[in-house]
Amino acid sequence: MIKRYEILIVHQPAILAKNNVFEITNMKVLAENKKLIVFDNDQFKIIAKQKSWIYSQINKPTIVIYTNDSCYGNSVKYILYTDKNKRNSTIKKEIEKKLNDKYGWLIKELDLNFITNK
């Protein structure tokens, strides 16, 4: 079973990003081959088993940082498709590292504690 971890950390709310979100969803596999997995959901989401320039990769998180975005405001979005259980503390460290690499000062203002409290 593949799990989808979705975390949205909101610093400054906007149209789509109003509250912090922490969701874990069990994904049902519709089809798969050596390179790709297709999920049975509304969008028939496709992820790659190996490095890909087009698709998200299994067991590799996608972390997007929004700054002054009209829809997401100032926020961080974390999405991971994995066949393993992921510790909340590990997720928090991955997000902190990404923020420190890009905006060292921003990490002090974002409250990431809700991740480890789930």
What are the key terms here?
four-stranded antiparallel sheet; four-stranded mixed sheet; 2 helices; 8 strands
Strand content: 35-45%
Q: Could you give the count of β-strands?
A: 8
Give the strand order, joined by hyphens, for the main sheet: 2-1-8-7
The dominant shape is globular
Q: Major sheet, described briefly?
A: 4 strands, antiparallel
Q: Roughly what is the average pLDDT, rounded to an integer?
A: 88
Structural class: alpha+beta
**Order of secondary-structure elements:** EEEEEEEEHH
Task: Please give a structural write-up.
This protein has one domain (about 1-115). It is about 15% helix and about 40% strand. By secondary structure, it is α+β, with helices and mostly antiparallel strands. The model has no long low-confidence stretch (mean pLDDT about 90). The chain has 2 helices and 8 strands. Strand 3 and strand 4 (about 35-40) form a beta hairpin. Strands 2-1-8-7 form a 4-stranded antiparallel sheet, covered by helices on one side. Strands 3-4-5-6 form a 4-stranded mixed sheet, with no helix packed on it.
Concise structural overview:
This protein is an alpha+beta fold and 118 residues long.
Strand-helix topology:
Elements: E1 2-12, E2 21-27, E3 29-32, E4 36-39, E5 46-48, E6 56-57, E7 62-69, E8 73-82, H1 88-102, H2 113-116
Parallel strand pairs: 5-6
Antiparallel strand pairs: 1-2, 1-8, 3-4, 4-5, 7-8
